[in-house]
Amino acid sequence: MSNGTEFYFYEDRVEARGMDIRLLRRLLSYLVPHKGLIALALGGLLLGTACQLAGPYILKLVIDRNVTPRVLDGMAGRILLYLAALAGAMGFLYLQMFSVSLIGQRVILHIRTEMFGRLQRLPVSFFDRTPTGRLMTRLTSDVEALQELISSGLVSTVGDVALLAGTASVLLWMNARLALVVFAVLPALVLFVELLKKFIREANREMRRKLARLNAYLQEHVSGVAVVKAFVQEEKSVRGFDARNEEYCAESIRLTNFYSVYFPGAELFASVAVALLLWQGGIRVIAGAVTFGTLVAFLEYAQKFFNPIKDISDKYNILQSALASSERIFHILDMEVSPEYGPVPSGGGEHAGTGEPWSAGDARRAGPPAIEFRDVWFSYPKGGGEERGMVLRGVSFALLEGETGAIVGATGAGKTTILNLLCRFYEISRGEIRLFGRDVREIPRGELRGMISLVLQDPFLFSGTIRENVEAGGAAIDRAVEVAGVARFSAAWDGGLITQVGERGGRLSVGQRQLVSFARALARDPKILILDEATSSVDPVTEHELQSALAKILSGRTSLVVAHRLSTILSADRIIVMHRGKVRETGTHQELLAARGIYHRLFTLQFAGR
Amino acid sequence: MSAIPLDEVRRAVSLVSQDPFLFSDTILANIGFGRDVPDEEEARRAASMARFLAEIEEMPGGMHAVIGERGISLSGGQKQRATIARALCAGGELLLLDDALSAVDSETEQEIFREILSVRGGRTVLFSTHRMASLSRCDRILVLEGGRIVEEGTHDVLLSRAGAYFDLYSRQMLVRELEAAP
């Protein structure tokens, strides 16, 4: 039951975890293909930083060589140089930012593609137990967290460090004593930043938790609105929402508060540094130990010095949540794909099945049977904590080429399971399934799925046109729409085959959807057609259309049908009666009726009196 | 019915729908959902009638165990019994069960029905089901086909009439017989 409670909200699970070097290394491996761009980004970064650092120094030169000694000579050149340095800083910064976001987008593109590709190859049993909401979160928010890390985290951290180291060296080189005056503020600033960042981090985490609580509550109470109404608990439900909403709001305000202390506070430290500089530098300028230009340059550098310190601790947050996300992403990427995507075991006999006593007395066609089950045992993989018993218990039957086999039996007898196994959606526990004498495990996936077409009980159509949906099955579209009767009903519409079917085919009627799914299955001109007949009832006209389409589709084609319609059962060459995971009877309708066994009873049960 | 204020209608009716929906909260809060303030004693009584109490007591935290997303996940049958307990706890005069015990084995279903019917007092119970074994206790059975009532009466009367109900019943007996086959 996929009700709302299974929707996952992951934000609150982003808990602080230590730096995981292994994880980081794997993340970095995604950057390797973009070496050129990374070199460009780093180059831009270093040159941009150098230009930024050059600015104040040129300022010093203008003051000390021109303004103070009242010399005009060379002043224009220096000023132009100053402008050039600033323009260069801008240009290189642009280069860096552009290439970094390019890298970020490409890496994300790659990861998303890789994830989707992996998802497509995971076994059906994985999707049986994983809620769709969770997978959506992986493909969206988790990937976005990674993108943020790459585009705003990694490279700009390098930039911050470069700027910091560069400024420090220039200061020390220009005047070690004054540099120490600037550095004197550092311990206090770092302490302040770290302390506040600790609060901010905690408030941030708390806020995300509150938001997740709010979202979960909202989601649950929207999907459970019928329950709320039925028990007249609207008020209580609103009260619950209000409480969570206010909690979240209060936490957001707390966080904003920290930030409003943080930025002005950090500014204050910079101002203290400036004051100290003016004091110590002023004394030295007056004493003639330091030039006026040096003091001005120092004041400029001091500003640049403190910005990266403020930023760096921000980056730590981004890195942490990105690491948590990447761990979940890698978890999916590391999942084992379905066995049918693996290598095909060699040595599989092409026609190993020949010579077996598969069907004495029926020599209609030579060669091995098209479909053969040999003592197949199967249980669905465990999931959801529930023990499941064997669904198939030693199933054996054979179907010749061109024959139509109808599987009948009560609910839970294992009919649909047989179809699933034939497509190799699950691996059998014991026994063998052979197609034209070959074990399905030895047939490459592409070939296997290429020779089988499957029509599901609930025909799933993708949004797009009718034609696109049929095309998804194969190339023989024209014949397929003709035989399946799709051409007939769509001809009445303006768009014909290029009519949009709507989301999940919602604009078509149930019967039309089924016809389209027939056409899709036929478009491949499959060797074997597998059909899980829908049980839903449709109006008599549609029913007639479906029946005549089915008759055309099945005639002369090897097909295995889980049959609910009397007409389908009657037209089958061979009826396979399933009961509690076992084949209990096989034969034609007449033979089975005459035997007066389970089929006879099922038949009376379902169709008597109609 | 349209003359009665909606709140009053819904307070009088306790519904158990086909799809058991529970909130990610404590068992107590879920079972006592129909009350403004959940009462543990009442919730226990309701859970016991729904044949759920013993399992609750085995859970860590008992009645205060959190279920759903961040807590214990219940099986389909447990969810259904929890929703029945919730409806019983709400105490409406009319109890509606919409095929509410499909994931519960038929023996437990019988027991739950016995409980509900024995203490109902003046309470009216209306339930829809595909399983017919529980129907023999009912005062009145309505047989629906294609949106219309085709037959009405007690189990015995309907059986003796050999109509739609009889058909359904004998088919189901046949299915049970088939299911019981080795």
Commentary on this structure:
The complex is a heterodimer of chains A (610) and B (182). With 610 residues, chain A is of the alpha/beta class. Chain A contains 20 helices and 10 strands. Chain A has a 6-stranded mixed sheet with strand order 6-7-8-3-9-10, with helices on both faces. A 4-stranded antiparallel sheet of chain A has the order 2-1-4-5, covered by helices on one side. Chain B has helices at 6-12, 27-31, 40-49, 53-58, 76-90, 106-118, 155-161, 164-180, and strands spanning 13-16, 94-98, 124-128, 141-145, 148-153. In chain B, the strands form 2 sheets. Chain B has a 3-stranded parallel sheet. A two-stranded antiparallel sheet of chain B has the order 4-5. The A-B interface holds A 1, 3-6, 8, 216, 220-221, 223-224, 226-227, 229-233, 236, 384-386, 410, 579-580, 598, 601-602, 604-605, 609 and B 7, 10-11, 13-15, 17, 19-24, 33-34, 36, 68-69, 73, 75-76, 79, 86, 90, 167, 171, 174-175, 178-179, 181.
Gist of the model:
The complex is a heterodimer of chains A (610) and B (182). Chain A is an alpha/beta fold.
Q: Give the number of helices of chain A.
A: 20
Helix and strand pattern of chain B: HEHHHHEHEEEHH
Rounded mean pLDDT of chain B is 82
User: Which two chains form the greatest contact, residue counts included?
Assistant: A-B, 31 and 31 residues
What radius of gyration of chain A results from the CA coordinates? 36 Å
State the major sheet of chain A. 6 strands, mixed
- Rg of chain B is 18 Å
Which stretches of chain A are poorly predicted, pLDDT < 50 over at least 5 residues?
A: 1-17, 347-364, 383-387
